[in-house]
Amino acid sequence: MAAMGDNNINAKLVLLGDMGAGKSSLVLRLVKGQFLEFQESTIGAAFFSQTLAVNDATVKFEIWDTDGQERYHSLAPMYYRGAAAAIVVYDITSVDSFTRAKKWVEELRKQGNPNLVIALAGNKADLEDKRKVSAEEARAYAEENALFFIETSAKTAINVNDTFYEIARRLPRAQSAQNPTGMVLADRPAARVATSACCS
Ligand SMILES: Nc1nc2c(ncn2[C@@H]2O[C@H](COP(=O)(O)OP(=O)(O)OP(=O)(O)O)[C@@H](O)[C@H]2O)c(=O)[nH]1
Ligand SMILES: [Mg+2]
């Protein structure tokens, strides 16, 4: 049960990545527990919100699911500006989508908040027989670049909730680091209490 008022955090989260990598499908899986075989391409961006309880904190994610088309790339800063977290999504069956994911990471590092929590999600992990990007390669890249790496499947739901929970767990720590403007909007920033084992 979420402890009311103990530590409520609003965190802007943006999903970036190639067209068809599965950004919208990951959000749909998280928010509605659903998966669509023929998920429509996002036009512009879509907004969702989802609240998660993590230990003593309640994290309300304000999620911006962006459009992966290259021609809309220039709009992306509107969505990652002020974000506390980003999920950079690629498709494990597409080397091009992994290349594009690396470009997003570079862009976030250059222009984003230095304390941004970045997750690198290798999606479509259910398509093992079509895999083109090894987990080892992606993990090595993630380690070099201080990213949190996870492989997910919006289709089977594997690791989808875990991705968001892990980001939520990392937020307060990032918040207590340098806390640049706009990174995490805490309702009661001073009200952190010691983390205790969760939950009965
Ligand atoms: N097998 C499998 N298919 C997936 C998975 N995630 C998404 N898909 C499929 O991949 C296609 C593209 O998924 P979307 O969620 O629309 O991808 P997107 O990244 O939001 O794409 P844009 O909005 O165009 O940028 C859809 O047909 C989904 O059903 C997955 O984990 N496994
Ligand atoms: Mg989409």
Question: Could you describe the 3D structure shown?
Answer:
This protein is α/β, with parallel strands linked by helices. It has a single domain, classed as Rossmann fold (3-Layer(aba) Sandwich). It contains five helices and seven strands. It has helices at about 25-30, 75-80, 95-110, 135-145, 160-175; strands at about 10-15, 45-55, 55-65, 85-90, 115-125, 150, 185. Strands 1, 2, 3, 4, 5, 6 and 7 form a seven-stranded mixed sheet that branches. Helix 4 links the parallel strand 5 (about 115-125) and strand 6. The protein is globular, with a radius of gyration of 16 Å. The relative contact order is 0.22. Residues about 1-5 and about 175-200 have low confidence and may be disordered. The chain binds guanosine-5'-triphosphate and magnesium ion (MG).
Keywords:
200 residues, alpha/beta, Rossmann fold, 7-stranded mixed beta sheet, 30% helix, 25% strand, globular, disordered N terminus, disordered C terminus, binds guanosine-5'-triphosphate, binds magnesium ion, membrane, protein transport, Small_GTP-bd, GTP binding
Topology:
Elements: E1 8-17, H1 23-32, E2 45-54, E3 57-66, H2 76-80, E4 85-91, H3 95-111, E5 117-123, H4 135-144, E6 148-151, H5 160-177, E7 185-186
Parallel strand pairs: 1-3, 1-4, 4-5, 5-6
Antiparallel strand pairs: 1-7, 2-3
The structure holds guanosine-5'-triphosphate (GTP) and magnesium ion.
Magnesium ion (MG) binds at residues 23-24, 41-42, 65.
